[in-house]
Amino acid sequence: MQLVFATNNLNKLNEVQKLIPSHITLLSLKDIGCEVDIPETQKTIEGNAIQKAQYIKEHYGYDCFADDTGLEVEALNGEPGVFSARYAGEQRHAEDNMNLLLENLHQKTNRNAQFKTVIALHFNNDLKTFTGICKGEITQKKHGDKGFGYDPIFKAKGQTKTFAEISLDKKNKIGHRGKAIKQLVAFLSSH
Fold first, then answer.
1. Sign of the C-alpha dihedral computed for residues 159, 162, 166 and 170 taken in this order
2. Pairwise CA distance, residues 94 & 30, whole Å
3. CATH class, range 2-189
4. What does the pLDDT read at residue 39?
5. Is residue 42 within a helix (H) or strand (E), and if so which, with residue range?
6. Distance (Å, whole) CA 184 – CA 132
7. Measured between alpha carbons, how far is 132 from 116 in angstroms, rounded to an integer?
8. Among 68, 96, 151, 169, which one carries the catalytic annotation?
9. How far apart (Å, rounded) are the C-alpha atoms in residues 155 and 178?
10. According to the model, what pLDDT value does residue 91 have?
11. How sure is the predictor about 10, in pLDDT bands with cuts at 50, 70 and 90?
């Protein structure tokens, strides 16, 4: 079985490849010659995942899946949410995003947050979505140098270390993307 994972993010690709069974060949956007910045113009995480998957299906014809992930912070009414990647601007710089988030939480005592990943799968002319959520909290400052995005300031519930301080294998077991991918793999294994 061959599936396109609609991402240009090599960190995401690496995370997901570790979770996909070997009988599924994962193709990247580069593998299929897609070098455009796929539009993400929807108002929800689900909407963006669906939009990206539909774009690949319509323009390239491959069965594919796409994900969109957002960090939702309770004290900020769910921000940055769908704007997580460009929270501090269109340059999509993780350090700037984390600094702005920490600044916006400076006077807040409620630091509850959750990562939410939605995967949209276009498979055999059908569309399915899978959602993974990891609840936790935003730390006071950055810790660790693994991972990407907001990992240095997010500590999953029941954990003593941030996502940036734990191994990729552990992050995949407890994290939002890993939970959504497990649902995707279970679906594909039954078809």
1. positive
2. 23
3. alpha beta
4. 87
5. none
6. 10
7. 6
8. 68
9. 16
10. 83
11. confident
Query: What's the longest Cα–Cα distance across the chain?
Result: 51
As given in the structure block, the two tokens for residue 26 are 């994962």
What pLDDT is attached to residue 62? Answer: 95
Q: What is the pLDDT of residues 66-115, one digit of tens each?
A: 999 999 999 999 999 999 999 999 888 999 999 999 999 999 999 999 99
pLDDT in the model for residue 190: 85
- ∠ Cα 93 154 27 (to 5°): 60
Count CB neighbours of 183 within 10 A: 16
DSSP state of 20: S
**Percentage helix, strand, coil, to 5, in the chain?**
35, 25, 40
Are the C-beta atoms of residues 163 and 148 closer than 8 Å to each other? no
Residue 169 falls in the annotated catalytic set? no
pLDDT digits (tens, 9 = 90+) for 130-147: 999 999 999 999 999 998
The beta strands (E) that lie in 12-150 are given as 25-27, 64-73, 79-80, 112-123, 126-138
Predicted TM-score of the model (pTM): 0.91
Distances in Å between the Cα of 184 and the Cα atoms of 74, 78, 115, 131, 150 are 28, 25, 18, 9, 24
Whether residue 168 has pLDDT greater than 90: no
**Would you list the domain boundaries of the chain?**
2-189
